[in-house]
């Protein structure tokens, strides 16, 4: 690909809830896939309908929609002179059931972002308004709101538009180019034509805002002194109509300004006409976004209340606000005695530092919890009782909004092995909470590195009764699906796991949690036997690589056994797992006997 793809945009692409592939259209070979696509496996992408659509898009330069048994989406060429094709698929039943996923919430240093989505309680969940906040390279952030008209497939159309928007931003396009391509995409995507959108890219370093609209109100700019104005209109038509006529505009901001994007639901309110409501919105935004003591999210809620009052909205409304809060945040570096009474002052100083970094309450809780576990481990395990020692604590903020915490000691701390009680769960807890965990033991001590991207976007999804929207939690989340089985036992210092049946996506997800629990997040050595596995899917392979990574970061090595001539052995031979794990293909099961009911460890 010819365009520079920033690491922060890659992270947004990776976390998208849609199945997204970038494909070499002429060779019909994937160039990349996000986490959802990899977890789903190659079945959806490898089907003849998708492959034919990819070839057609590469040869003709025309996008097309596609409907499969369980998925729907679009295949469209990415402009730029190469043969790259974008394939975006969404699960039809899930999209219609939930009305689309909540946005993946991220922010960048120097910007406080909040999104509020108010839904009329009488309307279905499959509403058409959406917002996105997407970090880009160079410390910039893309802000977008949109309104997909009511159709038979509103949720699916919205999901496809959001996926395409993410992909075009990922390709490094400017706002004008993104909107032009999004317009072409909407014209060929079922239910998306006629949608409206507003897109802005904010650079907190240069205080520059580039924006473009498609049949949508322009962004509002609120100064630190409460002055408010609508930015110049860009004149673009709704998505999918004509050539769009999208012309980007640029605004130069000042320190502490707030950029506000919204959907038409805040203008089409009961009572006065839209023009008067636009004036009311400007007045409320100028007051609320500069009101002392209000966070950006609280101000957004208050703005909607000012306009809608206690009554219901006619439809729904989205408000997305981004406030500049420039700061030169220096790393936090502490060296404290390895004593329990030092935990509280470190925690207090870290909380103050996180507040200056713009961390949300959820960010603070995650980072305080995980760093506290790492500090406690160092204090309790690095030095023998009665001896003096020190613990080093350092926190820094990357330009993409990732907090890195490094905690190091100079003692002989060793991760607990097969403790079957309540001990030894700290690393498991940390691994499940943060984006990345590295444990590096050596003869000079142990260092723990935690990396967590700030999810500083405060999300307020609510109905007209003021209730926060509930998102379903799968029931029996730790129960293996029918057709899969796990038996485990300790053999010496190692956990042995015997898997059987179908190791598909559903089974892999549950097994990952169970094995992480049994091995204390990878700190206890693990052997996995696949001799009785009939089907090893790509999700199963991904699980094995994740287990190998966990073992490696804890100084262990994953052992994997497969039977000669089995499907699992064939799959493993083509994955490269042997580079990160001990892969043994044997004629029969390994020498260790399978667990008896007395020695087996029940799955947690």
Summarize it:
The protein has 604 residues and is an alpha+beta fold. It is built from 15 helices and 26 strands.
Topology:
Layout: H1 7-15, E1 19-24, E2 29-33, H2 35-40, H3 43-46, H4 48-60, E3 64-67, E4 71-77, E5 84-91, H5 92-98, E6 111-119, E7 129-135, E8 141-147, H6 154-170, H7 175-187, E9 196-203, E10 208-214, E11 220-222, E12 228-230, E13 249-252, E14 258-262, H8 274-288, H9 296-308, E15 316-324, E16 332-337, H10 343-356, H11 361-381, E17 390-397, E18 402-409, H12 426-433, E19 436-442, E20 445-453, E21 458-463, E22 484-491, E23 494-503, H13 505-518, E24 526-536, H14 538-553, E25 559-563, H15 567-573, E26 582-586
Helix pairs in contact: 1-6, 5-6, 6-7, 8-9, 10-11, 11-12, 13-14
Would you kindly provide a written description of the structure presented here, covering whatever features stand out?
It is a single chain. The chain is an alpha+beta fold and 604 residues long. The protein has 15 helices and 26 strands. The protein has a six-stranded mixed beta sheet, with helices on one face. A five-stranded antiparallel beta sheet has the order 2-1-5-4-3, with helices on both faces. Strands 7-8-9-10-13 form a five-stranded antiparallel beta sheet. Helix 14 links the parallel strand 24 and strand 25. Helix 8 runs antiparallel to helix 9 and helix 11 runs antiparallel to helix 12. The longest helix has 21 residues.
